[in-house]
Amino acid sequence: MPASSSHAEELQMLPGNMECADCGAHCPDWASVNHGVLICIDCAGTHRSLGAHISKVKSTQLDSWRGEELQSFASKGGNLQANALLTQAGAPPPPPRGASRGTLERYIRAKYAPNSPPHGDSPQPAADPVEAMIRRMQAARKARRTTERAALRLQAPAWPLRSFPFSSESV
Ligand SMILES: [Zn+2]
Known about the structure:
The protein is mainly α and 171 residues long. The protein has seven helices and three strands; from the N terminus they run H-E-E-H-E-H-H-H-H-H. The longest helix has 27 residues, at 129-155. The N and C termini lie far apart (98 Å). Residues 20, 22-23, 25, 39-40, 42-43 line the site of zinc ion. Residues 5-112 form the Arf-GAP domain.
């Protein structure tokens, strides 16, 4: 059941809700229900990638909203107030308008999920000295074998050449 358009309009009436809470795009029609902010479809994608435990993303047009969701959303007071609260909680200042999607993604992550490491950038596992030594030894052995093979390849053409004068001598 899609939300009635009056719900979407109600949500957009809250202060600041005519612009995406994250990038400032006009007339956002997605929402982070638990953070009480309206966001554009692009920022909604980033919110979704954070996981529903961090940001519960819903469309104001396509999804149905339960009464308590609407209430909890509205209780945050709209984008202006929710952003002010997030800033108080340590959210970084928003990037300038027209910032790249990558910059916005980093901003959104820092704003809503300050303690989760970015995708594909998880901290390196603690270095295990023994494992590091084994890897160094394997690399050294591989390098030595490569050098030996290269040396053999260099010698290889010499054999037929050396046998050539032998065969001509025997004539
Ligand atoms: Zn946006």
